[in-house]
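It would be a great kindness if you could assist me with a short task in structural biology. The matter concerns a single protein, recorded as an amino acid sequence and a row of backbone structure tokens. Could you please explain, in whatever detail you think fit, how the structure tokens follow from the sequence? Thank you for your consideration; the sequence and its tokens are set out here:
___
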Amino acid sequence: MPLLCTSGQLNRWPSDGEQDYRLAIYGLQSYLTPACKAFLDGDYEYRKAAGELRQRVRGVYEILGRGYSEDPELRVKQLPASETHHHAYLGGMLDHGLELVACSLKLRQSYLLPTGAAPEDQAAQTDAWSAGIAYGALLHDIGKIAVDLLVERQDGHVWHPWQGSLDQPYRFRYLKGRDYHLHGAAAGLLYTQILDRPILDWLSGFPSLWASLLYVLAGQYERAGVLGELVMQADRVSTAQNIGGNPNKALQAPTHSLQHHLISGLRHLVQHQLKLNQPGAAGWLTHDALWLVSKTVTDKLRAYLRSHSIEGIPSSNLAVFDELQSHGLVESTPEGKAIWTALVAQGNWQQNFTFLRLQPALVWGSEDRPEAFNGTVSITTHDHSTDTPVPTPAPHTVDAGLDQSQPQPDPLAIEDADYLGTLLDMFELKEPEARDALSESAVETSTLQSDNPGQAFLSWVKEGILSHKLVINDSNAKIHTVSGTVFLVTPGLFQRYTQEFPDISKGTDQKIEAWRWVQKQFEKLKVHRKRGDGLNIWACQVQGHRRTTILKGYLIEESKLLFESIPPDNPFLKIAEL
């Protein structure tokens, strides 16, 4: 997004503890100039988001245009959405808010609101609920202007958002030691100035909607029902998109507050406890990344959060990796994993480690970042299952011919990942999957692997369905119901199984991948329907709004093998001819 009506640099003040900061403030040469509606209307990102609003709800664009284009922008200005995390640039708060509006209204299409009401009542309240969701998304972070930032006008006076519009150039800084939960409660200082009386009169006429919206604007998402859930889901998507995470995976993240605790814990550990850039350290800082030894840092992170009585801490390191990845706090490997394997070398010393890779800006501002490591951190292709240092053999030259013999990405896996984008805006989102320690029944499943590995896989699928660890007919689901049968997506479902039970590979034919071996054991059960030509794999066509995609997998006609009562067919899938 281009900077609106600005001149010069991003003018943030020095931190609270810096000496002579008043002198430093006035030593800055330029101020930010308040944006005007004409510039806003001409901005591409704003016009794009506003266009989506027109398409998604009748009348909401006109209301937002009247209530939002003037007042909130004259308060938001070019302020960022965060100091060092997502949308941490001039105009970031505006971008983030508009992204949330578009995403939450897209997700809203999967819901008939208010839930449980008669169809005629739902139809009558369609626009009101869409408007309420849009306003909740738009204003969910507005309180940050009041309590997270200190804004000074060019005449030296501090500006507060309840004082009205800024009428002169300004600069700002983030308050040190701020309460990261306070901005939710502070929204009440502002939203009555942004939403005018006719809008409030209209929305207050729908008690269920009105209560949910007020809870969202007070930061009490746990009481805000579907409206709160949609805003949180959209927040995760916008955040993940901005910092390079996976938006589809972000939708599965748990409550929003855990993200802050993870960031705060990592910052504390890196800045105050962990050794960096030396043999025996837990991390290495390069110019473009912070590499943290995965097991060491994750163990310390969980211990730190527990010592501060933080609730909802994942029960295993694997679950922590998933949380960090789903919030976009760590960068993913080309294979979509959270764990990287890299060789650290300095002088005559070198060692392999498994790492979490972070953007340094999540931990430091550029002004106080330690010096970069004067050795090298080189990504390797080894896949170590532990997080302990691995002795490194003497360097050797890799023959180009050997490199060509490495396994290539499975095209089915690529197709499996590709279709998620198509499904994102088509399915009602389910509860997030829990990645806790294996249940007792899962342990029992593992004991079956040597006796009847195919049945062990099928039992794992059934248990996952009953416990909701495996979702059905969802954007990230590997199990769908179609034409009265159960459709198991390959290779995704089999790959997930082998990831959960990595020891399976010890008993497999080493000439094929573990998931392919499990798939063959499943076929031996003969519970799937074969095609007319005798082949096992069926194709299902996924009909999206913009394109059609093909999924491949197995059809199971005897649904009682997996379901006590089979769910309705997925309306967006149909069996296709290969």
In short: The two ends are 44 Å apart (CA to CA).
